[in-house]
Amino acid sequence: MTESTTVPTGASTTASPVLRLRDIHLSFGDHEVLRGIDLDVSAHEVVALIGASGSGKSTLLRTVNLLERIDDGQIFLQADDISDPRTNADAVRARIGVVFQSYNLFPHLSVLDNITLADRLVHRTPKAASEKRALELLDSVGLADKARAFPDRLSGGQQQRVAIVRSIATEPELLLLDEVTSALDPELVGEVLELVRALKSRGTTILMATHEMAFAREVADRVAFLHEGRIEEIGPPSRVLRAPERERTREFLARFL
Ligand code: ADP
Ligand code: MG
């Protein structure tokens, strides 16, 4: 991936997916958690990963961000094989936004500093420009008045919205969201989902694990059902969620009725 900046990419790559996973295998000890995952995420596409707890959703997201080392397979971000052992992981992570369930913000930094930190340190954006952009983003999500606040003064929903704003402040090529609403009180879930909806309409490319089936149905272009480290079924939500072809998908979805 480090060499790619000097290599002409050619017009054909612009049509290639933002993310390509090819036959991803990963074991923890003798437990094979990812058992041959193939998945493409196209530009501006939202793909939702659903599946039981322990099916491998978080592990899959972590492999994309190079937080887990895969045993076999390939991961391409745009044209770059980021699973190549020579890959600079920090350079890859600078291209990918990530938001986890909780504990996303630095408690000792203001909202504004949380959002601008990566932009200023990793991308070397001047402070004034970085803060201007952060304030615009905060304003667009109704949190401009929280810019100088510290995370502990914000509700869980507000903190998660700030975490999402931070993840897109550097304009990543891909956004990974791992159950971003699951640690929230039910009344705070809606405002976070509203923000994800807004990102989709801005054209952000998103791979997200979620247990919010109604939300997946509404916002995802495709839904992938993971079962024991394999994609059991994938397709548009109108099919996978409403008319699943696989018995295991039906069993899983029955839990949400
Ligand atoms: P999900 O996000 O779908 O709930 P995970 O990806 O978190 O699933 O976990 C998949 C499986 O991998 C589970 O059996 C989990 O216990 C196991 N696992 C996850 N991380 C580790 C780890 N660091 N060490 C050992 N086992 C792990
Ligand atoms: Mg998980």
TrEMBL record:
Its main location: membrane. Keywords: Amino-acid transport, ATP-binding, Cell membrane, Membrane, Nucleotide-binding, Transport. One of its GO terms (molecular function) is ATP hydrolysis activity. InterPro entries: AAA+_ATPase, ABC_ATPase_HisP-typ, ABC_transporter-like_ATP-bd, ABC_transporter-like_CS, MetN_ABC_transporter-like, P-loop_NTPase. It comes from Agromyces atrinae. Transmembrane segments: none annotated. The keyword Transport applies. Pfam families: ABC_tran (PF00005). It is found in: Cell membrane. This is Amino acid ABC transporter ATP-binding protein. The keyword Hydrolase does not apply. It is a peripheral membrane protein. GO terms for cellular component: plasma membrane. Residues 19-253 form the ABC transporter domain. Belongs to the ABC transporter superfamily.
